[in-house]
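Page 47, continued from p. 46.
Same chain as before, 343 aa.
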Amino acid sequence: MGQTQSKQSSVAEAVFAGGCFWCMESIFQPLEGVIEVLSGYTGGDTVDPTYEEVSTGTTGHFEAVLVRYDPERISYEELLDVFWRHIDPTDPGGQFYDRGSQYRTAVFYADDEQRELAEVSKQALDALEIFDEPIATLILPAQTFYPAEVYHQDFFLTNAAYFSAYSTGTGRMAFVDSAWAGYEDVSLFPDSHDRWWEAFVKPSEAALRELLTDLQYSVTQEKATERPFQNEYWDNHEAGIYVDIVSGEPLFSSLDKFDSGSGWPSFTQPIELGSIVTQEDTSLLIVRVEVRSRYADSHLGHVFRDGPEPTGLRYCINSAALRFVPKEEMAQAGYSEYLALFE
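Result:
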């Protein structure tokens, strides 16, 4: 569980931890487009944990909910927006009355798209300066989701009176109402035509290590080079764009990609002027031109003057620094303005 379904399916999944899973059930279940909400446990090492085990705070698991939804009726962005508006994202030790590591807040992403959207929303929330303390909510890769015991499912409905008193008594609703007063209509996501990546704020080293694979981290942050012919995109021929694996900023188009014979993705030019940064690199005791992304400052690769016309350039780029967005997914992912390139 916890994995996004195929595009052919009308059901997708998202996993959130926001303190007591009863509270998370109550905010997601009523939403138009949400099909099912399961309370459960995730993020720890204990297999098939029980509520008694998780409640000790020693299993590493979070109390969480798995939300199954119809992406044609409600988007992942809308689910994120609802999530942020019903938690105290600055509390690293639990939520309101509920204390302990099992009550920490987190977004568990199933793929790069979910991770990117979660990061964008977190950065937008931080930029609003609603809260005086830093955002403590974690963004983590999805792990096995274990459904909680039957008596926990739909608890907010089957024990409505108790849950109402509990929800009020914890102070959660009062906090939410107070914190978001005046921000009710503010979106955490810019319009799809806006260049949301321009507001990117680079995460800490620790956060980057959580977000990236070892190879992605060593390439983008430590200027490593992946193996030729043994990387994801060197022979990719699909139509679409290549974006920075860290920030999502657009870098290159498949229209400018060519087979250089080098074993790495090669392009004749960036997707637009200013989308990349170049600087001198003498690390191999020869002068080369390093290519870096503008907003994430990721190491991408190098540019050489042995490419084909019309530019005569060869941007030799590591696949590990990139994420490919197919043309048919560009609008949904927020890259509508670049669809004109393919007309």
